[in-house]
Amino acid sequence: MLAVPAGRMLGAVDSPSTGAGAGTRPGSFTALRRGVLGACCAALLACAHDATSGPPEPQAGQLAIDLATASPTLGAVAFVIVPPTGGSVTQITPGAGLAIYQRALSAGRFRVVLVGTLGTGEVLRFTVPDLSQATAYGITAEAGADRVTFALIPTSQFTLTPRPFAPLAE
After folding, report:
1. Which CATH number fits domain 61-167: 2.160.10.10, 3.40.50.300, 2.60.40.680, 3.40.50.360?
2. Mind listing the pLDDT tens digit for each residue in 29-72?
3. For residue range 92-137, what is the model confidence (pLDDT) as tens digits?
4. Is the dihedral of CA 43, 46, 47, 48 positive or negative?
5. Which of 135, 162, 129, 134 is nearest to 60 (CA)?
6. Residue 123 CB burial class (10 angstroms; 0-12, 13-18, ≥19)
7. Distance between CA atoms of 114 and 65, rounded to whole angstroms?
8. Do 139 and 74 meet the contact criterion of CB atoms below 8 Å apart?
């Protein structure tokens, strides 16, 4: 006849997590499992935080200003380029065949006057330090003038819209 210790069932197998002192002995299976689980968690966290998961580096580039006008004789426009906080404007270049007059104002703003045969399309480009802020640049139209009569044209007769043009080559 088979003798079974008191409190034990026949066929029960001692596992590292059962029995007297389970999980308390150095080198027990429970301690090993906790160590492996901790190492796996640390490895996953290290992989999840890499250098590319942060915000992208600012990429300098050019913005273009497009003109849309209903006036076939628009000959001059005056406007102010308004950068976002921390933004800047450099290398202002007029479109083909246009003369430019510009003056730096406070807070990185520029007043610009373009003169020439102005029609719908790109009239100006300028460089910015971060293309991701392109939509934060504002253009405030101040005046327009007819190239034949020099009469003032209301700013409601034309629009100036900034748009990303191209990133700068690295």
Report:
1. 2.60.40.680
2. 565 566 655 665 555 545 554 555 677 788 899 999 999 988 89
3. 999 999 999 999 998 889 999 999 999 999 999 999 999 989 999 9
4. positive
5. 129
6. buried
7. 12
8. no
